[in-house]
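Section: Multi-chain targets

For targets with more than one molecule, the full set of components is provided together so that the structure can be written out for the assembly as a whole rather than chain by chain. Components appear in the order listed by the source. The example entry contains four components.
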Amino acid sequence: MSVSDVGAERALVDRWQRLLACHAAVWGALERELQNRHGIGVSEFEALEGLATCDHEKCRAAELADAAHLSQSATSRLTARLERAGLVQRAMCDMDRRGIFVLLTEKGRRLYEEARPTHREVLAEVLPEPEPAKASAPTSAPTPANGR
Amino acid sequence: MSVSDVGAERALVDRWQRLLACHAAVWGALERELQNRHGIGVSEFEALEGLATCDHEKCRAAELADAAHLSQSATSRLTARLERAGLVQRAMCDMDRRGIFVLLTEKGRRLYEEARPTHREVLAEVLPEPEPAKASAPTSAPTPANGR
DNA sequence: AGACATCTAATGCCAACGCATTTAATGAAG
DNA sequence: CTTCATTAAATGCGTTGGCATTAGATGTCT
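Its structure, encoded as tokens over all components, is:
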């Protein structure tokens, strides 16, 4: 294992650690603020945003799963929660009676519009700026030092 | 709301979306491979790595929580799981009998050494390279051009 | 038409997390 | 020495998520 390999591994792991830390910080802050101010979680918000920004305001369940980065089963339950809260409505897809459409209700759209500023505000506060690219070779070990 | 505000908001949200997607992809892949090959999850691995790279190979619980990005309660349960699996050992802290030290067992160290290559391999495969920083100013609308 | 592989969404089951609370130890103030 | 606020870790409880399975619909092939 060469020096540059060690440096590259270090850089790779550091990037992952930073991503984890950043994700935890932003997710936590979003969860707290969205829950306190609007009574929804991050997954709920991402789903509502997916629905609100979808072309025809209705979505196949699979698209919703993609928007919220959830498994099929979690998406099914998320939809159930949103429906129970009156934020979305399930509709049968007449083309393929296995599938469903999920569409925003007026209440859902209103809640999304209310929550969006909160979401953006938290992002602006907590999501760090992308670094201007440190002037250093990517494959060499810059200065291991220790951090944290 | 000015054009640049819209552009900045868009950029902010896009960064968050990319971070979410990247996190989901890498976390999912890590979870799968670490679980299949070594029988541990991502949080377990991060904790083991925290312990293995800690100066004296033992850690206060709070440091562990920091390493794994978990709440205090989740850390307590994570420690219990690791202890049940024989990977760590709890030790009383004689300076402050409220606190505990968590330290790697030999088995824990061996498992960590085994799992590390898997971890690095997955990161190398799935974690995307940081973009070479597109030439654009952060607060002004550089060239709105297109946007999704 | 009938059998079969495939696909969608829902559900049973269980693991993991966070919040709130509890228990125990510490340290400061009266 | 006796309170009382503070801190560390453990635990009860409820929520959310993934995996595996199930139920129903579709399309294909014979």
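Chain B is about 60% helix and 10% strand.
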